[in-house]
Amino acid sequence: MAKITDEIRKEVKEIVYSFFAEECEADIVQINENTSIINDLDGDSLMFLELIEIFKKKYSLDIELKVIGKYAVKHPVSTIGQLIDMQLLIIEHENHLLELDH
Predict the structure, then answer these.
(1) pLDDT bracket for residue 101 (50, 70, 90)
(2) pTM, two decimal places
(3) Other Cβ atoms closer than 10 A to 45
(4) 97 pLDDT band (50/70/90 cuts)?
């Protein structure tokens, strides 16, 4: 589990923006916190899984996909900002993510 610093927050935002710009062939300057992943970028849930893998490697995360899945069902993500927030929670809490609901 990592403490979320301003540097990590900035890094995650840059990675997410760059990822969606590349994957969705979108202009990165058109992407912001309120951008809808599905409606504006034509993104999908597989992209979210790819991003999780990127962050698992980058931050040496120990988290099971089923934990993320259970959390995501209760806390659906539709915008870039929501995705960044969830990714930061995953980095910070890893397999303890579900404990946040208690």
Answers:
(1) confident
(2) 0.93
(3) 12
(4) very high
> Is there a contact between 97 and 34 (Cβ–Cβ < 8 Å)?
no
CATH code at 8-79: 1.10.1200
DSSP string across 28-80: GGG--TT-BTTTTT---HHHHHHHHHHHHHHTT----HHHHHHHHHHS---BH
Query: What residue segments make up the domains of the chain, in order of their start?
Result: 8-79
Specify the amino acid at residue 85. Answer: D
Q: From CA 95, how far away is CA 24, in angstroms rounded?
A: 29
42 touches 56 (CB < 8 A): no
Are the CB atoms for 63 and 99 separated by under 8 Å? no
**What number of residues does the chain have?**
102
Evaluated on CA atoms 81, 94, 47, 51, the torsion sign reads positive
Residues sharing a CB contact under 8 Å with residue 47, sequence separation 6 or more, in sequence order: 19, 20, 23, 37
